[in-house]
Fold this sequence. Notes:
Blueprint: H1 2-23, H2 35-42, H3 50-61, H4 64-70, H5 74-97, H6 100-104, H7 108-125, H8 135-146, H9 150-183
Amino acid sequence: MTKFKISRTYQQAKLALVEFIYDKPFWGLNGRVNWWGLRSVGSIPALKVSYLVLFLVPVTARYDAVTEALGLYNWVMIASFFSSLCLAVANLIYDIFCPVIVKRFASPNDMYFEMLKIKEKSASLYPQDKFDACLEHCQKSYFHFSESSGRAGKICAILFLSSAFLFAVIVLERLFQVLWAVIT
């Protein structure tokens, strides 16, 4: 009886995982990732340092004294290089393909707020102009642009995730080295 319950629970968990993976598309407004979601990562100025790291890692690797002083191993240098490469390419793709509307406005509400300012100025300067700045228009255009360039967005998301994974591996290895030194 218990084996049947465990097996049934396992089957339910397996089915739930499959539904989670295949239920939503990867890209788009109703998907898991879009430019609006990538904006939180792509707009971090500190991540632009990956271009500098991409240059410094090979230069540092040429000097054994520097790598020994920093306690870096070959695989750490290689992982640092490839994580910086993934991050640099992801930043480049984000800078090139992310729509300007998504980069400039944090949400459709911010866009609507700016449109209201424009509408106010337009009404004072051109009273006969019928400029329409409604929330629905802002939401529709913002979400339309946040779903554009799907292939570039998917590649950008995968590169950001790959870079994060490699950096996490490096940090965990360094943390393990520190803890091992404290323990022994």
